[in-house]
């Protein structure tokens, strides 16, 4: 007996300590949204995607800036037997014992308008021949103090020019997608907020219904004993009391389930209890459809996406057309000298020039080039049609959401009045039942109608706020605070 008592005491103590460690968070809807947009796991994913896009854009910008490259071999030792061709045309194996070293520095710049590259470089090479039985040691230098040149494709597809048009759009699209993802997090937070709130209200209602049902059952048993009600009515009331127990248990489970979902969405690791504050007032601001459409076009990634896809399709048409020829022009001018000592390698410099024109073009490709051009042109037309349809659907969706927003606002007002009427009717009906003016059926109907009115009101409240956050997502504009929601975190 003592052991059992000690076990129960330890169990109660551990439960008390566990409950003491569980934090209670008192949050409003706006606070839940703010918390979600700061610590939610989806926000971390969105930040990572934006970071990836940011560095891709930085890499793109670097392509249009001068590049400085160092190329060096310090040293390159070669001690081997190798086959060489002698002056008389015969081959022979000889011992090679040498060390070569080289260092070069090149500055290059790509030209966006032409797709070519200009460069300037300086180079120095040295060869050390080691002493052998047949040859003395010696060294020689080859210098090219300055060399300038260019590489210019002719009639070719200019990737630099098209990237300069497309990549800024791609980065702008990504920043707007980031704002959309943040608003999606806010929408989901609002949805889960109401799931928990509704579950808590349902639990409170179920517990109150349980108290009322037990009270009615106790009163009805007394009435049955004095013969004022039939046994069937008593059994019906007893069944209601039993059903109330089941409803409390189910409502408690729903609270636990929805609390965990909200906790996970907010990125909260420890166990918490939410005390949620239902939005008391409905904002009175009106949303003009044309204004919503203007902000959606300006803020959403769709508009940038349409422009980017159209540019890419146009670029593919040009690429297919320019791929018929592969012609490039190369030119270089420089000064050079060779000598057996370092100083002489930079005196009496000699000029060197290189000009090369390369041509590679198909003579007969059996219509492949023309087919590629037609495919690219067809894809361009398909892209135009698809974009136009997507644009129409997008704008129509905005207009529909604005109209629905006004409707759900009115539904909240009507549902609230119906709920207030249901409360009053249920109260009057219960008092009339307690003084035996009406039967249990009328009371059950009043209770059921009040509960349905309560559910309708909370559901209408949820629909309104979800419509509000959905409009924020669709337009990336906060009509309540009159501000744009397109923002990029610091450091991007």
What does this molecule look like?
This protein has 492 residues and is α+β, with helices and mostly antiparallel strands. The protein folds into two domains: 22-57 and 164-309 and 381-484, Outer membrane efflux proteins (OEP) (Up-down Bundle), CATH 1.20.1600; 66-111 and 116-155 and 326-360. The chain is 59% helix and 22% strand. The chain has nine helices and ten strands. The strands form three sheets. The protein has a six-stranded antiparallel sheet with strand order 2-3-4-5-7-8, with no helix packed on it. Strands 1-6 form a two-stranded parallel ribbon. α2 crosses α4 (159-225), α4 packs antiparallel against α7 (301-322) and α7 packs antiparallel against α8. It is elongated. Mean pLDDT is 85; it is low at 1-20.
